[in-house]
Amino acid sequence: MIKSISYSQEEIIKDIITLHNNGAPIQCDATYSKGVFWKNIGRPPLTFDLAPQDEQTIKADCRHLPLEDNSIESLIIDLPFVIGSGPSLLEEKEGRNITSTRFSQFSNPQTLYETYSDSIKEAHRLLKPNGILIFKYQ
Hints:
globular, 18% strand, 3 helices, 138 residues, alpha/beta
C-alpha cells in the first residue's frame, strides 16, 4: 500500500519508483554523496558527485553531467539546502553545525536558487521524453 504521506525518504523514493517509474530502478543519481538512502533500494547504475565518496561515483557537477542529451529515463537530484556563512560555521563545538559540516552549503540564497535552477535545466537536457526527475530538497 502506498500512503499519501511519509516521513521516510526511503519509503517516498520507493513509492515514486512504484507509482511513476513502473517499478524500474532510478537510473542516475546526480548528487550521490555517500548513497545513504539507497542502502535498501539499490544503488542507481550512474552516480555522480562533486566530491565522490567511493570509487564507483564519477566526479561531476550536477549542472554539467558528462552524458548525452535525452539519454536518461530517471534521475534524482538532492542538493544541499543550507545557506550560511560567517565565523560561527568555523567553530567546532559538539552538536553544532552538524548539517553544514556533513554537507556543503551555499553562501547566499541567490547562489542556491541559481544552482537549483541550473540543475533542473541540466536534468531537462538529459531526460528522455516522459523521463522522471526526482528533485529532493528540504
